[in-house]
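task queued by scheduler; priority normal; single chain, no ligands, no partner chains; default sampling; output format set to C-alpha cells
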Amino acid sequence: MSLSKNHLKLITSLRQKKYRQKHKLFVVEGIKVVKEFLSSSYELDSLFSTSDEFDEHSSVIRISEQELKKASHLKTPNKVLAIFKVPIDEKLNPKGLIVALDAINDPGNLGTIIRLCDWFGVSNIVCSQDTVDCYNTKVVQASMGSLTRISVHYIDLEGFLKTSDLSTFIADMDGDNVYKAQLPNEGVLVMGNEANGVSETIKNLVKNKISIPRFGDVQQTESLNVATATAILLSEFRR
C-alpha cells in the first residue's frame, strides 16, 4: 500500500489548529512517542510506517521514506507517523497540585511542562484559552509521550481561579523567595506568558506570589525560561 492523496491532504491540514478541531484528529511521530500513544487510552485513526516494527497492528499502512518525508511535520522524520483521535475533555477534578498556564505561546515550552508534570506527579494542567494547543505537533513531540498521562484542560482561567478552593501561587519576579516559602501539598501554581508573565487580571486575583532568586554576582539575567522556572518551582512544592 501507499500514502493516498486524501491521507496526505489530511495529514498536512492537521498542522493547523482549526483543522485539528474540525476533524478531532492530531498527528504523532517517531517510534517512541507513537508506541506510548498506542499503549495508552488514545484511539488510533491511522498508522503509517516505513519499517516492519509496527506490523503487529493490522491497520498499519507501509509507506516509503519519500512518502513519509512528504507527510511528516518534522524536519527529520522517524519511521512512523500516526493519526490519533482527540479525546473528549474529561471534567476537571480540582484536587492535588495543579499547574495553570496563562497564555503560554511556545509549543516546546508547553511540551516540556507536560513532561515536568508527569515527572512530578501533577495530573492536571489548566490552560487559558489563548495557550498553545496541546495537540500541536511540536507540543506532542516535546512532551515525549507524557501527554498520554496528563490531562490538559482549556478553560476560563480567571473563572477557575475565582472559584477554586485551593491555595494559588503565581510565579512572579517580585514575589517572595520560594526557598523560604511554606508551600502546601495541594494548590495551584500559575505560570505566565514567556514575554509578559502572568496577566494583570490574574495577578489581581491572587495574593501569593513566589519567585526564584538570582544568585549570580552580576544579576543581569532578566528571567528564566518558563519551563525551567516550572521545574524549579514544582521541585519546591514536592520537597
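post-processing summary
- The mean pLDDT is 94.
- The longest helix spans residues 107-119.
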